[in-house]
Amino acid sequence: MPIQTTKSNCADCILAKKCVPSGMPAEKLFRFENIVQTNLPYKAGDTLFEQHNKAGYLYIVKTGSFKTKMISPQGTEHIHNFFLPGEFIGLDSLAFGVTLNSADALENSLACKINYPQLRTIRKEFPSLSDFSVKLYSSALAAMSQVQNIIALQAASSRLAAFLIFYHSRINQYGSQNNSFQLPMARQDIANHLGLAVETVSRSFSKLIDSGCIHKEGRNIKIIDHAMLQQHANTSTR
User: Fold this and answer.
1) Which fold has domain 10-126?
2) CA angle 52, 35, 139 (to 5 degrees)
3) What is the pLDDT of residues 203-217, one digit of tens each?
4) Contact between residue 91 and residue 140 where contact means Cβ atoms under 8 Å apart
5) Could you tell me the sign of the dihedral formed by the alpha carbons of 238, 164, 230, 222, in that order?
6) Residue 174 phi/psi, 5° resolution?
7) CATH number of the structural domain 153-234
8) pTM of this prediction?
9) Where are the domains of the chain?
10) What DSSP letter does each residue of 140-168 carry, written as one string?
């Protein structure tokens, strides 16, 4: 659970272009801010929401990262996705009224929480909010499709290469061109997400390192040859 709340203005946030509905008059922005709880802090391992709870909120990652996971009736855990700053968590549950999975912080993080029923109410007053909602859903569908495409790849090293490329593109979505980044998730989480054994992920990392396309030190990754990494992602053989 979050340990405290620090309220801030959405318009002043570095992620405003991602989160705040475009076209909403500045003098009316307080209506949107009134339904948002900002800067909710979570420690690594804290739960954002549990599976099978009532769904009524959207969460925006402000700093840090989160993972969503589903527990099957047989008790098997599957990690659906990882979420980075500027990305929304909980969209997939709103249509069902209950959370389809749970979400946990991978590291010390900040998140903002939007009251979705209230968002629907003020959407009638501000047409731009309808466009905002469509944008959110289309972005979520695109990300889900990309994840499914990665998992569908046959070769284990191809899945890992595609995962690293997709992750790298997401952390650089605000214009940064940094080829070095840190993976906040454990190797076990990556293996679970990609449908691979932990040992297979370790061998795949070694293969990518030996080929000269990445350098790895702990969880720190540096892409040395992006084109070669893309070739690995496109390889269909095991």
Assistant:
1) Jelly Rolls (2.60.120)
2) 65
3) 999 999 999 999 999
4) yes
5) negative
6) -100, 20
7) 1.10.10.10
8) 0.87
9) 10-126, 153-234
10) HHHHHHHHHHHHH-SSHHHHHHHHHHHHH
